[in-house]
Amino acid sequence: MKRLVSLRLGIALAVLAGAMVLVGGSVEPQKATAQAPVTLKMQASWPAGLTLFDNFKMFAERVEKMSGGRVKIEVLPAGAIVPAFEVLDATHKKVLDGAHTWAAYWVGKHKAAVLFTGGPGGTFGMDYVDAMGWMYEGGGWELYQEFYRDVLKLNVIPIPILPAGPQAFGWFKRPIKNLADFKGMKCRQTGIAAEVFTEMGMRTINLPGGEIIPAAERGVIDCAEWVGGIEDLKLGFHNVWKYHYTPGMHENVTIAELIINRDVWNKLAPDLQEIVKAAATETFFRWWMRWQRQNADAIKELQEKHKVQILKTPPDILVEFLKAWDRIASRESEKDPFFKKVLESQRQYASIVVPAKRFMFPEYNFAANYYWPPKPAAAAAPAAPAKPAAPAKDKK
């Protein structure tokens, strides 16, 4: 009898198992198929030896760790696949999956590009936190996407990633005491800052970072602006010029960007898209902290080891820069509705935040001067360059 019961039970279980196979396809729980890692090929607009490139590498490392290896980014320096100023079009055409670059390089396409970098003068006095506040809390993000998608009609997604300021006014072959001193000088400038300085009387030449020193050594330029601090030390400006002026108003708040081909972006799972955005935001602040200390160390080295005269930019130059920028911004607003739309959005946000912060926050100098009283500024004395500029050779 027991054998008969056992036999019947066995048959029943077999029938049940068969039914489960027919209904569910298997009696075992289905295992998720592992997604193959995605590798994105991205290029920067700067050489690998600069700290700006370190920001790019930090981002790639964070994305790989945060995604558990599901996304890897191949980071390439300027010129690896396309020239420095061609990464946007290359990303649009999917020659690159993405790029690490700066929106103000695209002012030749549309002047509003510079407004998404923080803009000259910080745009209405905003600092970095204000500028990022406008981006994420004041409608800037939506305008940023609209700019690339609908205005430039490019198939890319932009994301803020790199704070590179406040930037120095620049390097000069001789002392600059006032606005008249630099009129007529040939200086490396780029973006809309070049247009502003041209309006102020400077002769400007647009060059990528890696071409500035060779141009200076050949005597093609008399002065140049790059970034300041550690970046300028790495490029070797001190080997050509000994007069360095800071600050500048052209990029006291300047924000570089990560751009990704939209088709590549859409193929990423939603959680991976969020990881990329979160990694960019983390990189922005983590790298900025490290960079400020590097800049402080670089200033000390430039002064003590390389005998560079680091001098305060004459105030009349900074004021005139803001006036010239306001004139240009006004002209552009009259010509282009989108430029006006972005500028007015920034003005409205700044009109609320900047006066409030000025009221709530103590001036940086208040406690700084109490603990670290400023030393009297040294007068600019003649200083021979460490490496004389070689005359340009005629090519026949």
Task: Detail the topology: elements first, then pairings.
Blueprint: H1 2-24, E1 38-44, H2 51-66, E2 71-76, H3 87-92, E3 98-101, H4 128-137, H5 140-151, E4 156-163, E5 170-172, H6 179-182, E6 186-188, H7 191-199, E7 203-205, H8 212-217, E8 223-224, H9 229-235, E9 243-246, E10 255-261, H10 262-267, H11 270-304, E11 309-312, H12 315-335, H13 337-360, H14 364-371
Parallel strand pairs: 1-2, 1-3, 6-7, 6-8, 9-11
Antiparallel strand pairs: 3-10, 4-10, 5-8, 5-9
CATH topology of the largest domain: D-Maltodextrin-Binding Protein, domain 2
| Helix amount | 40-55%
Helix and strand string, N-terminal first?
A: HEHEHEHHEEHEHEHEHEEHHEHHH
Determine and state the CATH class of the largest domain. Alpha Beta
CATH homologous superfamily caption of the largest domain: Bacterial extracellular solute-binding protein, family 7
- The number of distinct β-strands equals 11
Question: How many helix segments?
Answer: 14
How far apart the termini lie comes to 111 Å
Beta-strand portion reads 5-15%
Structural class: alpha/beta
Explain what you see.
With 396 residues, the chain is α/β, with parallel strands linked by helices. The protein folds into two domains: 38-163 and 253-293, Bacterial extracellular solute-binding protein, family 7 (D-Maltodextrin-Binding Protein, domain 2), CATH 3.40.190.170; 170-248 and 307-362, 3-Layer(aba) Sandwich (D-Maltodextrin-Binding Protein, domain 2). Helix content is 47%, strand content 13%. It is built from 14 helices and eleven strands. It has helices at 2-24, 51-66, 87-92, 128-137, 140-151, 179-182, 191-199, 212-217, 229-235, 262-267, 270-304, 315-335, 337-360, 364-371; strands spanning 38-44, 71-76, 98-101, 156-163, 170-172, 186-188, 203-205, 223-224, 243-246, 255-261, 309-312. Helix 4 crosses helix 5, helix 5 runs antiparallel to helix 13 and helix 12 (315-335) packs antiparallel against helix 13 (337-360). The longest helix is centred in the last third of the chain and has 35 residues, at 270-304. It is globular, with a radius of gyration of 27 Å. The model is unreliable at 1-33 and 388-396 (pLDDT under 50).
